[in-house]
Here is the input.
Amino acid sequence: MKNILVPVGSSKNALSHLQYAVDFAEAVGAKLFVVQVYNVYTKAGTMIRVDGPIQRESKEFLDSLVSKIDTKNVDVIVKVLKGKLIDTLELACKTGDVDLILVEPRTNSIKDEVYLGKTSGKIIKQTNIPALIVPEGYVFKPVTSILLAMKSAIIKNKKALNPLKEVKEIFKAEVNLLLVKTPYYNDGDFDVNETLGELASSVTKSGNATTFQGVLEHYRSHNPDMLCVVRRKRGFFVKKWEKNVILKKDFYSNLPVLVLRGLK
Here is the structure.
């Protein structure tokens, strides 16, 4: 894991999130890109040039944040980017060869019932970049146990598991695989191939209406300090990701959640 990208908004959790990002980057030996994305919408016929002031203020804001945290020995690069959020982040990740994007849950939402706000939800739902959702105020600690929750063990894109493999190897963590049989179950979904079998220390099978309900049922028995799920068109957050905002009643984790890109 060489490059990590952290999009920064104006949330009051920004400092805590940045410190976690630095601590995590130091532990995995990665470079950190701290970015803010802005877009300019003008009425037809207007000629006001606002790019300069916005870019300057955003850069000053990011520099101020970074100056308030302990950057340790991490190479932190600050960038202000113009464009549509998702397109710009995907281009930045491709250009910077980014392995992982760190996301705040609520960002600017002040509603207590919200887990992922519009911005964070959009990043998780609409990009195919491996992501780590870090709870608000969460202090970094080495990962010792990971619960990997899936409704299907079928893997066609083996590279999709790379972020999980790297976290496991770097922290010498134990990965426990939870296979959840939902109403969408197909024959062969529980056939664990060699790649996944070598990754998992244990395999638990459960029957639940959703993968998240399976996580709730088996969470305490595994006692993980990281949850890992898979981004699928018909996967973990099927209905929950139809809208960008995700409420805590639909999904919530007080632990970091590693979201892998699609396995198929």
Observations:
- DSSP finds seven helices and twelve strands in the chain.
- The helical segments are 14-28, 51-67, 85-95, 118-126, 162-171, 194-199, 211-222.
- The two ends are 22 Å apart (CA to CA).
